[in-house]
Write a structure and sequence with these properties.
Shape: globular
Radius of gyration: 18 Å
Oligomer: single chain
Helix content: over 70%
Largest sheet: none
Strand content: under 5%
Order of helices and strands: HHHHHH
Number of strands: 0
């Protein structure tokens, strides 16, 4: 992979992370008048779906329907993971604070990411668990404790 593609991926991850951190308090704000983090998630996903529809129409990239037909059932579950994230963030941000909520979520993401990498889950290239990855997880746990105490 070229260095420019790696740089673009890094920038995309930082922007995505910033959007993720902003999503919790925004959806928590939405949950107040809608009386539920689930209702807020529904509105959030409806707006996201509308934005994605515009992108799909603008980009005009056609699916490979034969590949879609051969995809395993669990390939369709990505949206459910998003539901878990949005509801958890909308519920937790006003109770724990944004920093603690996101730090805990990043910790959870890193934990499952190391496991998924190790086994090469979902067709990704396996990357074995190493001492440095375990140390990174430990540092995140320490960060959660420091952010929570702060």
């Amino acid at each position: 992979m070229s260095k420019s593609m790696i740089a673009i991926a890094v920038i995309a991850c930082v922007i995505g992370g910033m959007a993720t951190a902003t999503q919790g308090p925004t959806n928590a704000m939405l949950a107040r008048p809608f009386n539920s983090p689930v209702n807020a998630a529904f509105i959030s996903f409806a707006i996201g779906t509308a934005a994605l529809a515009v992108l799909v129409m603008a980009l005009r990239v056609r699916p490979d329907w034969s590949a879609v037909a051969e995809m395993p059932w669990y390939g369709w579950l990505g949206g459910l993971y998003g539901v878990c994230f949005v509801i958890a963030a909308a519920f937790s941000a006003p109770r724990l604070g944004v920093a603690t909520t996101i730090t805990l979520m990043v910790g959870g993401q890193l934990l499952i990411s190391v496991i998924l990498d190790h086994f090469g889950a979902f067709g990704i290239e396996p990357r074995p668990i190493s001492l440095s990855r375990i140390a990174g997880l430990a540092l995140v746990v320490g960060g959660v404790l420091l952010v929570r105490r702060g």
